[in-house]
């Protein structure tokens, strides 16, 4: 539920990393991402989009809203594929965290 996600983001410590579905009830995922990108406390949060939509549909939805995610993946149907996606999301987080740490030392 996108509305609940926004409420949690407002009420709690800003997360370092968010895995976000685009197809959420109440408030759609791109609108949640727009909130994340525009709120002062979460604007630098790394976001991985994980959606059942095909890759081109993910890109289109994000472009239509004018927001970007750090990475995006299509939900797989099989467990082993899902595990590989989980590893790729973690790799995305590590890459983003490392580049952020590197930029902070420059």
In short:
The radius of gyration is 14 Å and the shape is globular.
Word description of this protein:
The chain is α/β, with parallel strands linked by helices. It is built from four helices and three strands. It has a three-stranded parallel beta sheet, sandwiched between helices. Helix 1 runs parallel beside helix 2. The longest helix has 27 residues. The radius of gyration is 14 Å and the shape is globular. It starts with a helix and ends with a helix. The model has no long low-confidence stretch (mean pLDDT 85).
Provide the helix percentage: 40-55%
Number of strands: 3
The count of helical stretches stands at 4
- Give the C-alpha Rg: 14 Å
Report low-confidence residues grouped into runs of 5 or more: none
Strand order of the largest sheet: 1-2-3
Percent of residues in beta strands? 5-15%
Coarse structural class: alpha/beta
Largest sheet: 3 strands, parallel
Shape: globular
Distance between the termini: 39 Å
Give the topology string: H per helix, E per strand. HEHEHEH
The average pLDDT score comes to 85
Features:
alpha/beta; 55% helix
Which secondary structure elements does this structure contain, and how are they paired or packed?
Elements lengths: L1 H10 L5 E4 L8 H10 L7 E6 L3 H11 L5 E4 L4 H27 L1
């Amino acid at each position: 539920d996108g509305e609940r996600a926004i409420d949690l983001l407002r009420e709690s410590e800003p997360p370092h990393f968010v895995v976000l579905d685009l197809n959420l009830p109440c408030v759609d995922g791109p609108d949640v991402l727009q909130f994340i990108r525009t709120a002062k406390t979460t604007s630098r949060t790394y976001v991985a989009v994980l959606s059942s939509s095909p890759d081109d549909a993910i890109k289109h939805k994000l472009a239509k809203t004018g927001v970007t995610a750090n990475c995006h993946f299509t939900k797989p149907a099989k467990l082993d594929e899902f595990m590989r996606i989980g590893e790729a999301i973690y790799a995305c987080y590590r890459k983003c965290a490392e580049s952020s740490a590197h930029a902070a030392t420059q």
